[in-house]
Amino acid sequence: MALRRRGLVSLGAAVTCCALAAACTPDPAPGATPSPTPVSAAPTESQIERQIRLDYEAAEAAYRASTSEQNRLYRAGGATKASPELKATTTGSYLRITLQSLRDVHKSGWSARGTTKIAGVARDGGWKSARLGLISCEDNNSLRFFDRKGKDVTPKAERRYVQKLTVVKVAHRWKVSMAGSTRVSSFEGQQCVA
Asked: Residue 83 belongs to what domain range?
């Protein structure tokens, strides 16, 4: 019996201590209010805005992957057919023109050193769920071509281009399908390097 009473006394003492501790907690100072939860200054993205952003990001990624694969193929001495990586990121006239250039390099026995550098990419025009436009600043000056004997056969002209690209969605993948190029001496003031 003494054990049972001792347990009840201990339990009662614990409850009393908790009640007193809560009663002794000081009230907040007058005029002090809890801080509100910070509110984001930027509005949240709507579902369509999110889709547009994701589509542009995927289109730019396809363009960058295509350029990277072209660099690899040029360094390997060109190609006679499109690699799976090139087919995954290009289509239409862009693929045909790229493949023709790779065939010309292969037929000539040339190879490349260096890479095409993308100075910037920006949105160009409106968005449609399966078609959009990009504008790119491409610097090809560090991409050098050499013949079989190791002689530099790179064209001497300036090789910086502003590219207006059309990117289309084919079977849920974005692919570069067309390009219009304008040679420039500098990218200063161009939309793609803002």
From this structure: 47-193
